Every structure is written in C-alpha cells, then in structure tokens.
C-alpha cells in the first residue's frame, strides 16, 4: 500500500495530472507498471516517436537537447507525458544518472483510462489549454 501511495503522490505532481482526484490518480496508477533501470540507460532519445511517459519514483536522470544538458530530473518529475496524447518526436534525450525506479504508462493504457474515466479527459484538455495560453503569453506578451 505504501508503494501505491508513493505513485499517487508522484502522479499528482505531474502537471498533466495535477487537477486529478485521488480516485482518478488511482486509475492511472493501476494502468502503469514499475520499471527499474540501470545507470546509463537511455530512457528516451531526441527525435524518436514517443509512445509512453515515465514518472521518476527514485533516482535522477539528465536531460539533453542536442549535446547540451538542459535539466536534471528527480522523484516526481515526468518524462514525455505528451506522448500519451500523440506519438510526436521526443524533444530531448534522457539518460539515467544512476539506478532508478520509474512508473511507466503507455499511450494505449492511458487511452483506456480516459475511456473509463471521462472526467479525466476534460481535466487533461484544460491543462493543455493552460499550457497553450502560457506559451502564447510568453511569445506574444
């Protein structure tokens, strides 16, 4: 039970899922799997099609665009959540800095959750609209 609560806490930190109820987060948690990875494992490669997202449960990873480090991710951070909605190209490469534990959720599993919990679709759309407004404000003022 403690592990499930950890998943829910980390999922609630993911911006795409931040407005979800504990019940909705529980549905998402049941749809995914735990994935242990070793030091140096490439989680995603820039330019590759995305088909799943990862939430960091334990450990850290380095994010690179081109050959330039742009971020370090740790517990509660999400990698590739937009891949749940489209299969667009990854915008960065992410490599495990050490041993990690990840929660992985595939786009098919997420689509099943959306069908099962229609209220979740509205929340995801609202979050995406918020991101578009935020980007619009940054670009156009």
Q: Please name the fourth-level CATH homologous superfamily of the domain at 33-109.
A: Jelly Rolls
Order of SSEs: HHEEEEEEEEHH
Low-confidence stretches: none
- The side-by-side strand order for the widest beta sheet comes to 1-8-3-6
Largest sheet: 4 strands, antiparallel
Share in β-strands: 25-35%
CATH domain class of the domain at 33-109 = Mainly Beta
Output the radius of gyration.
15 Å
Second-tier CATH architecture of the domain at 33-109: Sandwich
CATH T-level fold name of the domain at 33-109: Jelly Rolls
The SS-based structural class is alpha+beta
Describe this structure in words.
The protein is of the alpha+beta class and 141 residues long. The protein has a domain of 77 residues: Jelly Rolls (Sandwich). Helix content is 39%, strand content 28%. The protein contains four helices and eight strands, in the order H-H-E-E-E-E-E-E-E-E-H-H. The strands form two sheets. Strands 1-8-3-6 form a four-stranded antiparallel sheet. Strand 4 and strand 5 form a beta hairpin. Helix 1 packs across helix 2 and helix 3 crosses helix 4. It is globular. The model has no long low-confidence stretch (mean pLDDT 91).
């Amino acid at each position: 039970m403690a592990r499930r609560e950890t998943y829910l806490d980390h999922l609630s930190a993911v911006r795409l899922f931040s407005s979800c109820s504990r019940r909705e987060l529980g549905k998402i948690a049941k749809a995914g799997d735990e994935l242990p990875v070793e030091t140096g494992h490439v989680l995603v490669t820039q330019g590759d099609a995305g088909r799943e997202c990862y939430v960091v449960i334990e450990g850290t990873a380095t994010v690179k665009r081109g050959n330039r480090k742009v971020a370090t991710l740790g517990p509660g951070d999400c990698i590739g959540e937009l891949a749940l909605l489209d299969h667009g190209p990854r915008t960065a490469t992410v490599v495990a800095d050490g041993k990690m534990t990840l929660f992985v959720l595939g786009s098919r599993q997420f689509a099943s959750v959306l069908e099962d919990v229609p209220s979740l679709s509205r929340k995801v759309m609202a979050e995406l609209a918020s991101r578009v407004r935020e980007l619009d404000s940054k670009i156009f003022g």
